[in-house]
């Protein structure tokens, strides 16, 4: 096969910022160590790009959601440092865990039984302290199969750590009580936002995800966290339209004057969804190029009024500061990262 021509779009990942974010979150975790949530392909930024950086920064606890995610992470770190949050839903999962050496997070009495039946051994245990997502209810912790587990990290997950909610303190109390009910080596409660709730929430291990990748779920973190992701794309074509002409799918923008526009090579499959409509703007150097009309499949049209020098083949940037982008697009900071498409990632410089 001939060499492929270079891509017209790319995701940039600032690996220095990623490392600095992990170190900042580790420092903010006080006596606790910071781990890293690397599920969903490092929230869309790429396991192969991010995991070696986190490892070299000093991270030793990695969390994925699915068993299908273990292999890619295990290319970079020992499988024993990988925890699988969804636990063992089948005996196939349990056997795979035993063979590959990744650590299941046990979430139910059934999972505890299944893990013991597969041979047991080191595992983590998730207790539900109020989010009502995954995890054992405190009342289930007395179960014989649960008591028999070799629990390394006892963990729970906060529902509202990114808000000033009384639920945070309630979950903290429930979690502390569950620590009396089952033997464990260490304890972990805080996600990114939970780290900012203070030392009561830190225990032995924290589990940041979003903030590693530049998300700012609480204002306390804004000074410490640097953006990591950048979205860049080429202008495929420029044209001049007359007053009264429309742009894009469903003709949602009508020019009120003659104007020069550029067609940017970014669209739905890259994770730039229709919800950006009428909100976003590209940058070209320090020039501002508003999006016009609706994202139309693989393309977005930009207003080139401020940058008459822009030509076909020039590159523009979609600022991906997650706090601002969340306001512009109506998507959460989590969604903004995890929707980034594989086509964008494979364009990586
Ligand atoms: C995803 C996840 C995290 C990371 O949460 P962020 O809010 O992204 O920091 C931590 N713990 C568990 C159990 C998770 O599922």
Automatic annotation (TrEMBL):
Q: Which residues form the Alanine racemase C-terminal domain?
A: 228-349
Q: Which reaction is the catalytic activity of this chain?
A: L-alanine = D-alanine
This chain's source organism reads Altererythrobacter lutimaris
Listed cofactors = pyridoxal 5'-phosphate
Listed SMART domains: Ala_racemase_C
Give the gene that encodes this protein. alr
Annotated substrate binding sites: 133, 297
Q: Which residues carry this modification: N6-(pyridoxal phosphate)lysine?
A: 39
Report the superkingdom from the record. Bacteria
Question: GO terms for molecular function, please?
Answer: alanine racemase activity; pyridoxal phosphate binding
- Family as reported in the entry's similarity comment: Belongs to the alanine racemase family.
CDD domains according to UniProt: PLPDE_III_AR (cd00430)
Gene Ontology CC entries for this record: cytosol
The record's section on SUPFAM superfamilies has: Alanine racemase C-terminal domain-like (SSF50621), PLP-binding barrel (SSF51419)
Q: Name one Pfam family in it.
A: Ala_racemase_N
Pathway listed for it is: Amino-acid biosynthesis; D-alanine biosynthesis; D-alanine from L-alanine: step 1/1
Q: What is its EC number?
A: 5.1.1.1
Q: Report the enzyme's class at the first EC level.
A: isomerase
Catalytic residues, per the record, are: 39, 249
Instruction: List the protein's name.
Output: Alanine racemase
Look up keyword Cytoplasm and say if it applies: no
The GO biological-process annotations, alphabetized, read as: D-alanine biosynthetic process
Return the HAMAP family for the record. Ala_racemase
